[in-house]
Specification:
295 residues, alpha+beta, Immunoglobulin-like, C8orf32 fold, 7-stranded antiparallel beta sheet, 6 helices
Length: 295
């Protein structure tokens, strides 16, 4: 399936910004299941400097510097990607017991260096006994790793309520676990923290998901949003992605932009400004199957 994605971020400032420097994660990366067809990134005002690099995790980083006074900053990414179907759970019948992988990562970490960097606590995702206890209801003795991960995905979906007013990007993970409310970023962090607390490797994935309007209603421009999910390391199958917000194994309706240890590694836009006073933020995202895309 081919998709067109448009992600527009608009900041408005009370007083002029003299200088702005921003780091962007808004361009899609290629994966075994996703190929980039085209991509553009437009900033208004036009940057004095703009460059693109790959970061430590292989994500596209765009750096922009704006040196003229401005009271608004708009960044628009627009791209097309081709997304292929992924294997279903039926394909993962040889997943090892989770304890086997836990022991392997502890004793043979050098042989799984790509995974071990995603095993440890971060500022936003700290391992804890509370998270380990939450995970153990699904990670029972000798249960296959990916079966247990799917069960944890289902448990988060059942027990947590989607509530955009309950959290923000600074809400501690233990508050999310206790309150059982939040958004996709929070649910991904809970799953990652729970599995890392058992000595397993997980990474945070940011991107988008195709949403479906109610039957008989038109697809609304700008009504979609960024999304987040979890990728679990399995030595037999590599990285396998789970979406606890939607209670599913990631398939062809998910579009990958970046991955890292937690949200901080892949936030769509962050930076510093000189001046500006109070600011207002507006974000609009449109994910469209290509057969419906506007030209």
């Amino acid at each position: 399936m081919r998709y067109q994605v448009e992600h527009r971020t608009l900041y408005r400032y009370d007083t002029p910004v003299i200088q702005s420097q921003q780091l962007l994660h808004m361009m899609p990366r290629e994966t075994p299941f996703q190929q980039s067809v085209s991509c553009t990134l437009v900033c208004n005002p036009q940057p004095a400097e703009q460059s693109r690099h790959l970061d430590f995790f292989g994500n596209h980083n765009d750096y922009v510097t704006i040196l003229i006074p401005h009271q608004s900053l708009q960044v628009t990414s627009r791209f097309q990607v081709e997304v292929s179907p992924r294997p279903t759970m039926d394909a993962f019948i040889q997943s090892p017991a989770w304890e086997q992988l836990q022991a392997m990562l502890q004793s043979q970490g050098a042989q799984h260096i790509e995974a071990t960097r995603y095993m440890y606590s971060t500022v936003k995702v700290k391992s804890s006994e509370a998270l380990a206890s939450f995970a153990r209801t699904c990670f029972t003795p000798q249960r296959p790793l990916l079966e247990a991960a799917m069960a944890l995905t289902q448990q988060i979906y059942r027990e947590f309520e989607f509530d955009p007013q309950a959290t923000d990007v600074a809400t501690p993970l233990d508050e999310v676990l206790n309150g059982k409310r939040g958004v996709c970023q929070d649910f991904a962090h809970v799953m990652i923290g729970a599995m890392r607390s058992l000595g397993l490797a997980c990474r945070y994935v940011s991107g988008y998901i195709l949403t479906h309007p109610p039957k008989g209603q038109p697809r609304l421009v700008g009504a979609d949003a960024s999304h987040a999910w979890v990728s679990v390391y399995c030595p037999v199958y590599g990285w396998v992605d789970f979406d606890p917000t939607n209670n599913c194994l990631v398939q062809h309706e998910h579009i990958t932009v970046a991955w890292g240890r937690d949200f901080s590694d892949v936030s769509p836009m962050r930076g510093v400004v000189l001046g500006g006073g109070q600011q207002q933020l507006n974000v609009s995202v449109t994910v469209t199957p290509l057969e419906y895309a506007l030209t």
